[in-house]
Amino acid sequence: MEPIAELLIVPFAADFMQRALLAGLLAALTCSLVGTWVVLRGMSFMGDALAHGVLPGIAVAYLLLGGGEVATTIGAAVAAVVVIAGVNVVQRHSHLPEDAGIGLLFIGMLALGVMIISRGSGYFGDLLSFLFGAALGVPPGAIVVQAVAAVIALAGVVIFHRAFLALSFDERKAQGLGLHPGAARIALLALIALAIISSFRTVGNLLVYGLLIAPPATASLLARRVPMMMTVSVGVGMLSVYCGLLLSYHLDLAAGAAMAGFAVATFFVVLTVTEVVRAWSSRGALASAPTAPPA
Question: Helical H runs in 42-139?
Answer without folding.
Answer: 44-53, 55-65, 69-93, 98-118, 123-132
